[in-house]
Amino acid sequence: AGILLLFGQLGWVAIVANHVMCGLLPLAGYGFGVLLHSRILGWIAGLLVMVRLQFSPFPNMMMSEPLYMFLLSLGLLALLACFRNPRPASILATIAGILLGAAWFTRSAAIAVIAVAVVALLVARPIGLRPTVTRVAAFLLPVAAFALLECALNAHYGGPFRMSHGAAGANLFTARLCYVQGVQAPPTPAVRM
User: Fold this and answer.
1) pTM, whole model, 2 decimals?
2) Which residues contact 5 (CB under 8 A, 6 or more apart)?
3) Which of 104-137 are b and which e, b meaning 16 or more Cβ less than 10 Å from the residue's Cβ?
4) Is 139:108 a contact under the CB 8 Å cutoff?
5) Looking at residue 186, what is its pLDDT?
6) Is residue 117 within 8 Å of residue 71, measured between CB atoms?
7) pLDDT at position 191
8) What is the DSSP string of 111-172?
């Protein structure tokens, strides 16, 4: 529903964007391999991702799975880089928070990854109390912004001020459709829960 909100009648643009995002996923696999071990492992990981994507039906459909995979992969890559590079850790933690928050905004299943990421940021490497708190705060602020945005969207379109379990795209699409047709928006998925 969120894809229809962005692209409207231009469904081919969404499919092209899906292909571009899936085409960049092997680079994320390469990045994981390089950060974890070496360039050889990076090449192997990138090739395995390419082989796996050959059998994926998602790029050819108007679905948000490629966006979710893309945001989740890049968010985890930024989080891993945050662990490997102690100096710009706050910036990388913020980037990881933005990407994983957007992934959670796309699919509510990313909340489990966010919880594991917070625990990993807390216990991963003993760097001291102040840098750890800074890194966790830098990660959680964008995630909290996405949570507040979804709560506000849900409240604006007739539901209570709470998260609607990954239905932000459906809420936005319903609101846009009702605005275009000039009718009042029906209850959001969070109201029916």
Assistant:
1) 0.75
2) 169, 172, 173, 176
3) bbbbbebbebbeebeeebeeeeeeeeeebeebbe
4) no
5) 52
6) no
7) 44
8) HHHHHHHHHHHHHSS---HHHHHHHHHHHHHHHHHHHHHHHHHHHHTTS-SS--SS-HHHHH
Which tens digit of pLDDT belongs to each residue from 83-131? 887 666 788 889 999 999 988 888 878 888 888 888 888 887 777 788 8
pLDDT at 169 over 60: no
Burial class (CB in 10 A: 0-12, 13-18, 19+), 40: exposed
Map tokens 């964007």 to a residue. Answer: 17
Measure the CA–CA gap between 6 and 2, rounded to whole angstroms.
6
Sequence letter at residue 127? I
Structure tokens at 66: 């490629």
DSSP 100: H
Higher pLDDT, 189 or 138: 138
